[in-house]
Amino acid sequence: MNVLFISNDPSIFDEASVARARMREYASALGMLHVLSNAPLGARDVTEGGLHLHPIKVSKLFRVRVLAKRAHSLILREKIEVVSAQDPFEHGLAALRAVKGTPAKLHVQVHTDFLSPWFVRVGNWRSPRVHMPILNKLRLRIADKVLPEADGVRVVSKRIKDSLMTKYGTNIREPSVISIAVPQEVPEAVRLPSHHFTFSLIAVGRLEAEKRIEDILVALAFVVPKYPSIGLFVVGEGRQRTRLERMTKKLGLGEHVQFLGNRPDAWGLMQSAHAFIQASAYEGYGRTLVEAALAKVPIITTDVGIVGEVFKGYEDVLAAPVADPTELSLHIVTLVENTNARIELPQHAEAAARAHLAEVGDLPARIVGDLSVLQKSYTENNL
Questions:
Q1: Residue 214: how many CB atoms within 10 A of its CB?
Q2: What count of other Cβ atoms lies within 10 Å of the Cβ of residue 351?
Q3: What does the alpha-carbon distance between residue 89 and residue 63 come to, in Å, rounded to a whole number?
Q4: Which residues are CB-contacts of 355 (< 8 A; sequence separation ≥ 6)?
């Protein structure tokens, strides 16, 4: 099979990265894989067996046009059978334009629960307002154009599939649900940086608006007066970091929050915390939830991604509505005060995570199976 991925993951050009290793696995399973992606300055074409990497470096304003033109050229030159876009937005639009006038089939991946109202919503009366990207409103319109044109759709959770089928019905191909691979071998625990906390929370993720770290900070501010030795470690980087640091000081939490930046050992750090917490507005899947479950730490989370599908609220995790710092604070207090909850929730969550990963099975093989349906259609149409 000869497949082209249209991606936006510059890390694939780092030969030691996890993303590069994943592309090697896919290429081995597919036979031939071309990846067209935004890349770091100076990146060049790379060929490793059946894996071919094609870099571009262009501003967001012109990215769709450049991706579409380059992808169209690759389709014709390399006789690409299937083009798979990493999202139904800019990359999906570029892929749609690229396959026009060619026999290549269009496949669209959906990793984000973009039909959640929180994809564009900024807050409510219970929570701080965040600055969601204005572009998200345009992305909804792009998805409405791209998805009905796709020959195949793959999503990462049943939540996304259900939302797509509710909105589009028979106007789109029924999506395949193929989750994200998470290694089951947990790394060794890593000590948290020096601190005075007797109960430590850890949040791991990009510091972007949709992660709603603001709600965690407000929840912490509710709890600190009663439990002054509680603290939070925030692992990750992003455009919201400066704003979040200012908010931390404004809430009087300077002695209770440590921003650690990006840490390659984040999974190890989780194991040294008393609880993992996330307050995402939406998630397509929620890889860090699975990692936290495998790390055997209690989980506080909003009802997003695979919550309800893999993890059950009040059985495996403590779940709260999106943008509800009060509910998050109550869950924090529950874990501080309830020893049984701290013991039993992680046990149930780990069992649920391992059962889920067993069902995921051989991810490259499942992806090949998903794409092979389109490849068969390509072959039949071009006999």
A1: 23
A2: 12
A3: 12
A4: none
- Give which of 33, 65, 38, 55 is closest to 371, Cα–Cα: 33
Q: Where are the domains of the chain?
A: 2-183+360-381, 199-359
Q: Which CATH architecture has domain 2-183+360-381?
A: 3-Layer(aba) Sandwich (3.40)
Distances (CA, A) of 102 to 105, 145, 154, 226: 8, 19, 22, 65
Share of residues in the chain with pLDDT > 90 (%): 87
For the full predicted model, state whether its pTM sits above 0.85.
yes
User: Class for domain 199-359, per CATH?
Assistant: alpha beta
pLDDT of residue 164: 98
**pLDDT, tens digit, for every residue of 209-244?**
999 999 999 999 999 999 999 999 999 999 999 999
Strand-pairing partners, residue 51, are 33, 48
Residues 331, 337, 338, 339: what is their CA dihedral angle, to the nearest 10 degrees? Answer: 130
Query: How far apart, in whole angstroms, are the C-alpha atoms of residue 304 and residue 320?
Result: 9
Residue pair 295/320 in contact (Cβ under 8 Å)? The answer is no
Q: Report how far residue 25's alpha carbon sits from residue 226's, in angstroms, rounded to the nearest whole number.
A: 51
The reply to whether domains 2-183+360-381 and 199-359 share a CATH topology is: yes
Closest CA to 255 of 223, 228, 277, 279: 228
